[in-house]
């Protein structure tokens, strides 16, 4: 529900919450506005934190063993060439794996992918 608390005596509420074109109603009265404010504060303090865009991120077990290995090596500071040698794959394969990780973690950079993986405890 949209609500605008103007001050302790006035609030604007939608005339019809299902129709955004219906306009708003000016509500007057300290007791009624106080009730709206109390409702708002209750909703605010009991709300869950907004996710940071990670809603479509797979669980750690959804990653392949190779992806997990790449993630750990990147976190340790290894360069792509050294990761490729350690895994016995081409540099292009490492680039593809990093790209897949970034896509699955919904990130725009390798650094951000590392941060999100660390927040999930995937690098412990």
UniProtKB/TrEMBL annotation:
<dbReference type="InterPro" id="IPR036388">
    <property type="entry name" value="WH-like_DNA-bd_sf"/>
</dbReference>
<keyword id="KW-0238">DNA-binding</keyword>
<dbReference type="InterPro" id="IPR000792">
    <property type="entry name" value="Tscrpt_reg_LuxR_C"/>
</dbReference>
<keyword id="KW-0805">Transcription regulation</keyword>
<dbReference type="InterPro" id="IPR016032">
    <property type="entry name" value="Sig_transdc_resp-reg_C-effctor"/>
</dbReference>
<protein>
    <submittedName>
        <fullName>Helix-turn-helix domain-containing protein</fullName>
    </submittedName>
</protein>
<dbReference type="Pfam" id="PF00196">
    <property type="entry name" value="GerE"/>
</dbReference>
<feature type="domain" description="HTH luxR-type">
    <location>
        <begin position="56"/>
        <end position="121"/>
    </location>
</feature>
<keyword id="KW-0804">Transcription</keyword>
């Amino acid at each position: 529900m949209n609500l605008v608390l103007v001050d302790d005596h006035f609030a604007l509420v939608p005339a019809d919450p299902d129709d955004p074109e219906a306009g708003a109603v000016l509500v007057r009265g300290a007791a009624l506005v106080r009730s709206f404010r109390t409702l708002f504060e209750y909703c605010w303090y009991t709300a869950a934190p907004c996710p940071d865009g990670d809603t479509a991120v797979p669980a750690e077990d959804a990653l392949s063993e190779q992806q997990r290995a790449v993630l750990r090596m990147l976190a340790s500071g290894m360069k792509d060439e050294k990761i490729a040698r350690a895994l016995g794959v081409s540099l292009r394969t490492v680039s593809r794996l990093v790209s897949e990780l970034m896509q699955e973690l919904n990130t725009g950079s390798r650094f951000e992918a590392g941060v999100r993986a660390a927040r999930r405890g995937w690098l412990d």
